[in-house]
Amino acid sequence: MMVLVLSGFDPSGGAGMLQDVKILSALGIRAHGVISALTVQNEEKVFSVSFRDWEEMKREIEVLTPPRVIKVGLARPEVVKNLREMFPDSTIVWNVVLESSSGFRFQDLGEVREFTSYADYVVLNNEEAKRVGEHENFIVTGGHEKDDRIRVRYRELVIEISRVPGEFHGTGCAFSSAIAGFLALNYPVEEAIRAAMELLRKILERSSSVVETEKLLRDWHKYDVLNTLDEILPEFLEIGPLTVPEVGQNVSYALPWAQSEYEVGKFPGRIRLKEGKAVAVSCASFRDRSHTARMTITMMRFYPYMRCTVNVRYRKEYVERARKKGLKVYHYDRSKEPEEIREKEGQSMVWMIERAISELKSPPDLIYNEGWWGKEAMIRVFGRNPKEVLEKIKLMLKE
Ligand SMILES: Cc1ncc(COP(=O)(O)OP(=O)(O)O)c(N)n1
Ligand SMILES: Cc1ncsc1CCOP(=O)(O)O
C-alpha cells in the first residue's frame, strides 16, 4: 500500500512531509515523498517559504511507482494540474494552505481557485472555502468556535465530533493525509472522512501544541509488551515447578521508555504453584505494583536496554551452573545492607542492583541472595526481553 506525497518540509515536524509520513505510517501505509517547498518555521511561526520547480520534482516522480492515491500539501497550485496530466486516473487529495495557522500567507487565492478542479478532493477550512469559492469536491473543516464541536462537510455529508481543546500546529496536514490514507485503503470518501476525524481525535488527545502522531505509534509498544508476555507465559509455566518460589514468580517486561513500574508489563497475582503445577493468576497487564517491575526500572536507569526481570527460587546448584556457563552472577549479601535501606519497603532491591552494577561495571545476568529474616532466598534474572531471560534460566536448570 503506498501514497505519493508532495508537500513542504516543516523542520519542526508538526506539518508538511514529516507529519504526512507519520500519519500514513500510523495506517501501515508507505509514503513516497517528493518535497514541494522548503520552509523556515518552528511550532509557533512560519518565517519563509521557497517552492521547488516542477521540472525537478517531475524527475523524482517519474522514477517512482505510479501512485493510486496522491496527497498534495504546500506546493505551487499548478503542481495539481501537472499531477493530473501525469496520472489521469489517480485520486488526488489537495490540502490547500492559503495561510499558516500563524498567519503566514502561503499561496495566492486566484491561483488556488484556478486549479481546484484538477483534484478529486480539496481539503480546506471554512474561511479558505469562502475565499476560494465553494466547489463540490471541497472537504471543508471548521469548528463552532462558540462550542466544543468540530464540523466537517463534504457535499451533503456533515459530520460533527467533539473538539479536543487546544490549537495544534499541523492539524490540516494530518487530517488530509489521513483521508488520503483511508482512500488508499479503499474506504469510500465519506467513510475516509469519518475515519480520519476519529484518528485525528485519538492523536490530538495525546498531543499538546503540535499534532504528536508519534505518541499514537507508542501505543503499539504497549500491545507488543503485553502480547510478548502472554505468548511466552506457557514456556515459563512449563518450567515453573523448578523455578517458582514460595512468594510466587513474576516476569516483568518494560516499555522502551519506562520510568515507572506502571510502564512495565507483568502478571498481576504472579505465577504460583498449585498442586505441583505452575499457574498464572491473570494475563499480562501494566496495572499493579511489582517488585520485579521496580527492579527492571532500576536496572534501566543504568542500562535502558535491560527491560526484563524474572525472579526464580534459590537453589545453590542453579547459581553454580550459571557461573560455570559464563553468566555474570552477583551475590547480594543482605547483612551488608544499611539499616536505613532495610527499614524502607522496596528499597533493598534498588540498593542491591545499584551495588551489583557498581561492582560488576556491567549489567548482571543474575543477582542472588540466600534469604534473610522473613525474606525468602531468591535469584533475580535480568535480560533485554523475556525470551533472553528464559534462555538464561534454562541454562541454570540444565546440568
Ligand atoms: C510545510 C508546511 N505545510 C503546511 C503547513 C501548515 O501548517 P499549519 O500552519 O499548522 O496549518 P494546519 O496544517 O494546521 O492546517 C506548514 N506550516 N508547513
Ligand atoms: C516478592 C518478591 N520480591 C522479589 S521478587 C518477588 C516476587 C515477584 O514480585 P512482584 O510480583 O511484585 O514482581
TrEMBL record:
It catalyses: 2-[(2R,5Z)-2-carboxy-4-methylthiazol-5(2H)-ylidene]ethyl phosphate + 4-amino-2-methyl-5-(diphosphooxymethyl)pyrimidine + 2 H(+) = thiamine phosphate + CO2 + diphosphate; 2-(2-carboxy-4-methylthiazol-5-yl)ethyl phosphate + 4-amino-2-methyl-5-(diphosphooxymethyl)pyrimidine + 2 H(+) = thiamine phosphate + CO2 + diphosphate; 4-methyl-5-(2-phosphooxyethyl)-thiazole + 4-amino-2-methyl-5-(diphosphooxymethyl)pyrimidine + H(+) = thiamine phosphate + diphosphate; 4-amino-5-hydroxymethyl-2-methylpyrimidine + ATP = 4-amino-2-methyl-5-(phosphooxymethyl)pyrimidine + ADP + H(+). Catalyzes the phosphorylation of hydroxymethylpyrimidine phosphate (HMP-P) to HMP-PP, and of HMP to HMP-P. One of its GO terms (cellular component) is cytosol. InterPro entries: Aldolase_II/adducin_N_sf (IPR036409), PM/HMP-P_kinase-1 (IPR013749), Ribokinase-like (IPR029056), ThiN (IPR019293). GO terms for biological process: thiamine biosynthetic process. Coiled coil: none annotated. This is Bifunctional thiamine biosynthesis protein ThiDN. GO terms for molecular function: ATP binding; hydroxymethylpyrimidine kinase activity; phosphomethylpyrimidine kinase activity; thiamine-phosphate diphosphorylase activity. PANTHER family: HYDROXYMETHYLPYRIMIDINE_PHOSPHOMETHYLPYRIMIDINE KINASE THI20-RELATED, PHOSPHOMETHYLPYRIMIDINE KINASE. It is an enzyme of class 2 (transferase). Its EC number is 2.5.1.3, 2.7.1.49, 2.7.4.7. Pathway: Cofactor biosynthesis; thiamine diphosphate biosynthesis; 4-amino-2-methyl-5-diphosphomethylpyrimidine from 5-amino-1-(5-phospho-D-ribosyl)imidazole; Cofactor biosynthesis; thiamine diphosphate biosynthesis; thiamine phosphate from 4-amino-2-methyl-5-diphosphomethylpyrimidine and 4-methyl-5-(2-phosphoethyl)-thiazole: step 1/1. Residues 10-130, 136-210 form the Pyridoxamine kinase/Phosphomethylpyrimidine kinase domain. It comes from Thermotoga neapolitana (strain ATCC 49049 / DSM 4359 / NBRC 107923 / NS-E). Keywords: ATP-binding, Kinase, Multifunctional enzyme, Nucleotide-binding, Thiamine biosynthesis, Transferase. In the C-terminal section; belongs to the ThiN family.
